[in-house]
Amino acid sequence: xxxxxxxxxxxxxxALSKSAFLSRQEVLxxxxxxxxxxxxxxxxxxxxxxxxxxxxxxxxxxxxxxSPFKEDEKKSSEQTDGNKxxxxxxxxxxxxxxxxxxxxxxxFCHKHILNDSNQILYRxxxxxxxxxxxxxxxxxxxxxxxxxxxxxxxxxxxxxRALKRVGLNVSSPSKLAPKLHVIVAEYVRLIQTKxxxxxxxxxxxxxxxxxxxxx
Length: 215
Hints:
The protein is mainly alpha-helical. The chain is built from 5 helices and 2 strands.
């Protein structure tokens, strides 16, 4: 049952309830107060109905894959669309060796959602792994940097190690958080170290080839 609404100015109305006559100012003030309260109640009720409508519309769209306000389509076309997009039916992912169920409004599961050229919600994790490859697991586009859950933790560990080399311990509350220029300088140092190491390997490889050709 809905909660009862308290009328504004009840104490004043109670004090004037035993009066045989009311002045024009008192009548207008009481009517104005009640009209304003009634307007607020109507507005609150209106916005509650709007929120309820949005919630039900969202549930309907999620279940049926189309707006309830559009014209009804033929039953055959609905089944065809459902077969393509996995709407209202529990269809499997379109990847041949995948047994997962397709996500709503697409033909692919979450693991293979990047195969859908029409989707714009996901992108691949760009964390580098073995031999110059990247992870490419689907993550939401709103996540920045685009790392999956596993590699997001790995990136934090690498960052903590890099900061620790320059004497900054981010886990310690007694020290201030690192400034941006310190972080950038440490990353530049790591990049330069990797480049020098790669250059050193290429030079040694060239020397070995020269010795082999001379012999």
